[in-house]
Fold this sequence. Notes:
The complex is a heterodimer.
Chain A: E1 5-7, E2 10-13, E3 19-24, E4 31-38, E5 42-50, E6 53-57, E7 64-68, E8 74-78, E9 87-94, E10 104-105, E11 109-113
Parallel strand pairs in A: 2-11
Antiparallel strand pairs in A: 1-3, 3-8, 4-5, 4-9, 5-6, 7-8, 9-10, 9-11
Chain B: E1 3-5, E2 10-14, E3 19-21, E4 24-26, E5 32-39, E6 46-52, E7 60-61, E8 64-69, E9 74-79, E10 88-96, E11 102-104, E12 108-113
Parallel strand pairs in B: 2-12
Antiparallel strand pairs in B: 1-4, 3-9, 5-6, 5-10, 7-8, 8-9, 10-11, 10-12
Amino acid sequence: KAGVTQTPRYLIKTRGQQVTLSCSPISGHRSVSWYQQTPGQGLQFLFEYFSETQRNKGNFPGRFSGRQFSNSRSEMNVSTLELGDSALYLCASSPGGFDNQPQHFGDGTRLSIL
Amino acid sequence: AQKITQTQPGMFVQEKEAVTLDCTYDTSDPSYGLFWYKQPSSGEMIFLIYQGSYDQQNATEGRYSLNFQKARKSANLVISASQLGDSAMYFCAMRDDIAPRLVFGTGTRLLVSP
Lengths: 114, 114
């Protein structure tokens, strides 16, 4: 069974630009969550999607947005990039989200802002 | 609000020895789940073990076991017979039944020496 796939693996952008990250969950998983990992703030929850609906959102500015498609694939968009957005962005999927099944993570997208 | 505390920034262990990584948590929710993840230097988060708040027995998965002490709000990870490949960051995380999101601790870096 294929795992969670995140593309691209690495990305370099400049301040003010926007970026879109992609996540394909494990087949059959309908819940997709996004996390940001930085040395200073650690791992922080961004948002979670289930059946194309955002069910939960973390404490991030509106520049961070996402969506989920009917095949459960998800995209995350960050607009007007700032230096502080440099981070490892991790996507995780689980069957439904509220059960005891663990979230399985992808390899992450490492975003660097110049 | 939920909180996970990992007080050991780094741990050293010799190959084939056992090691315990500490995790304490704080929550007012009666139902919750506790997870441990391993993050090698390459970045991916690997699920290791899960413990539910109502589980009567401590969880075990191969060389990993979870020492769950509910009254003390601790969920320590025990790795038996350490291997060189166990060198990585280890994160303790919690999920409640209200929102399918994980709250992570700051992590413990484990180094296994030959």
